[in-house]
Write a structure and sequence with these properties.
- By secondary structure, this protein is mainly alpha-helical.
- The chain folds into two domains: 84 residues, Arc Repressor Mutant, subunit A (Orthogonal Bundle), CATH 1.10.10.10; 111 residues, GntR ligand-binding domain-like (Four Helix Bundle (Hemerythrin (Met), subunit A)).
- It has a two-stranded antiparallel ribbon.
- Helix 2 crosses helix 3 and helix 5 crosses helix 7.
């Protein structure tokens, strides 16, 4: 990674944290580029690239003759993996926005349907991957192993849009204090293998509500 890229990502993350934590609210005007250069001890090129990155994520907007402002929340690309990572960082301090409940709502809307799809579509390879990832999770009971399991679960649904939603699940796991719901995952894995869509839906809901 080049020095400019590394500095750009550091500055973008710092500015995004101020936005996503609510420290800089919607329509807040950004400091002048020169002030940001001085604050972060970086070049104007780095600041401009950082702002371009934030703009691509919908976090900021350029207002003619008024400068750069924080965009409305409805414009934020909250499903973007970088934004979700920045949200995790912003949650470490004072945070106006607690989106962990919203993340759970979306997973409740999504994962039971994915479970039913997986029960209908999963082939031998998908079932093997799901079972192997479950065994690994049972042995380690850790966050990384749970993400491997969820990736196998989402993949078993046979829908490319589902894979794109994995960063949301990762964000949710980082904000969950409870241990992985192993019993519910066991039921989910078995139901998918048995092609029982109703049981798979129920297990997916149980996994979310008991974790």
């Amino acid at each position: 990674m080049s020095e400019v890229l590394r500095l750009t990502e550091r500055v973008a993350a710092a500015l995004a944290t101020r936005i996503l934590s609510g420290t800089w609210p919607e329509n807040h005007k950004f400091p002048a580029d020169a002030d940001l250069c001085a604050e972060f001890a970086v070049s104007r090129t780095v600041i401009r690239e950082a702002l371009r990155l934030l703009g691509a994520k919908g976090l900021i907007m350029a207002v003619p003759r008024r400068g750069t402002h924080v965009a409305l929340r409805e414009k934020w690309a909250l499903w973007d993996k970088d934004v979700l990572q920045w949200l995790t960082s912003s949650a470490d301090g004072i945070n106006k926005y607690d989106l962990s409940g919203d993340a759970l709502d979306m997973r409740l809307a999504l994962e039971p349907t994915l479970a039913a799809l997986a029960a209908a579509r999963a082939d031998d390879s998908a079932n093997t991957a799901l079972q192997e990832s479950l065994r690994a999770l049972q042995q380690t009971n850790g966050h990384e192993a749970e993400m491997v399991y969820l990736k196998a679960f989402y993949s078993a649904a046979g829908n490319d849009f589902a894979i794109a939603a994995l960063p949301l699940a990762q964000f949710a796991l980082k904000h969950r204090a409870a241990a992985p719901p192993l019993e519910a995952y066991q039921r989910l894995t078995a139901a998918i293998a048995q092609k029982d869509g109703v049981a798979a839906r129920q297990a997916a809901v149980q996994a979310l509500l008991t974790a």
